[in-house]
Amino acid sequence: QVQLVESGGGLVQAGGSLRLSCAASGSISSIDTMAWYRQGPGKQRELVATITNGGGSIDYADFVKGRFTISRDNANNALYLQMNGLKPEDTAVYYCYADTWGRGTQVTE
Fold first, then answer.
1. Among candidate residues 72, 61, 83, the one with its CA nearest the CA of residue 15
2. Is the pLDDT assigned to residue 55 strictly greater than 80?
3. CA distances from 12 to 26, 59, 87, 91, 107 (A)
4. Out of 30-34, 52-56, 72-76, 95-99, which region has the weakest mean confidence (pLDDT)?
5. Confidence band of 33 (pLDDT split at 50, 70, 90)
6. What is the pLDDT of residues 58-92, one digit of tens each?
7. Cα–Cα distance for residue pair 73/52, rounded to 1 Å
8. What is the 3-state secondary structure of the chain?
């Protein structure tokens, strides 16, 4: 299994944007589906977005549709989440998933 390290989180104002990155320690080219999850304070971890290999299938949770964009770069072994129009309810620790979990990056709005 690869190791995953998320980055790009931080404090942002309402309506602001952040781009999260997830760097894998090895090749992700054989991993079919990668995803971003989040866990808000006092809440369960929830799925935010998924992307299959080659980007052929992308899905979003209803609460981020039209605001967030997931992408992956197999050549650089990375997963991304572009977050626009951030809301207070987006405050959470965001986790990368690719057959294993990263440690997360905090996003605070």
1. 83
2. no
3. 31, 25, 9, 10, 8
4. 52-56
5. very high
6. 999 999 999 999 999 999 999 999 999 999 999 99
7. 11
8. CCCEEEECCEECCCCCCEEEEEEECCCCCCCCEEEEEEECCCCCCEEEEEEEHHHCCEEECCCCCCCEEEEEEHHHCEEEEEECCCCHHHCEEEEEECCCECCCEEEEC
